[in-house]
Automatic annotation (TrEMBL):
Signal peptide, first to last residue: none
SUPFAM superfamilies: NTF2-like
Organism ancestry: Bacteria, Pseudomonadati, Pseudomonadota, Gammaproteobacteria, Pseudomonadales
Organism, as annotated: Aquipseudomonas ullengensis
Occurrences of domain SnoaL-like (ranges): 7-128
Protein name (Swiss-Prot/TrEMBL): Nuclear transport factor 2 family protein
InterPro entries referenced in this protein's UniProt entry, alphabetically: NTF2-like_dom_sf, SnoaL-like
Domain of life (superkingdom): Bacteria
Gene3D superfamilies tied to this protein: 3.10.450.50
Length: 130
């Protein structure tokens, strides 16, 4: 499997875990030092632990992913780092209300030499332009 195929497989697994509310697998797809920028959050989240804490708050408020679809994937390899860009359609339930979001996302993956797998180390989620 080529490096590009490995990154695409890692991205598919991350999206699958998110779409299935598989919290353990979802957060296992990120390095501990991962950072996150979400257009819905007032400030960046500067660690996986910070995002996990926010995720738990969301779940306590009735947050649930109903589905998530990735389209138009693109990968750019930069040595042991890869940029993955895609369009994301997500259906959520938040406090009993169903929400559909159309967003564009960049995920930076870094190859873990000791494990030979690609982990996400940065995620940036933006609202889809009108």
């Amino acid at each position: 499997m080529t490096a590009t195929e490995q990154v695409l497989a890692a991205a598919r697994e991350l999206v699958r875990a998110f779409a299935n509310n598989d919290t353990e697998a979802y957060f296992a797809a990120f390095s501990e030092d991962a950072s996150f920028i979400f257009h819905t959050c007032p400030q960046p989240l500067l660690s996986r632990a910070a995002y996990q804490a926010l995720w738990q708050e969301w779940q306590a408020d009735g947050f649930e992913v109903l589905s998530c679809t990735s389209n138009n994937p693109w990968v750019s390899l930069q040595g042991d780092t890869a940029l993955f860009i895609h369009d994301v359609t997500t259906h959520l339930q938040v406090g009993g209300e169903r929400i559909e979001s159309l967003e564009r996302e960049t995920i930076v993956f870094r190859k873990q030499q000791e494990q030979g797998r690609w982990l996400a180390c940065h995620e940036h989620l933006s609202a889809m332009p009108e």
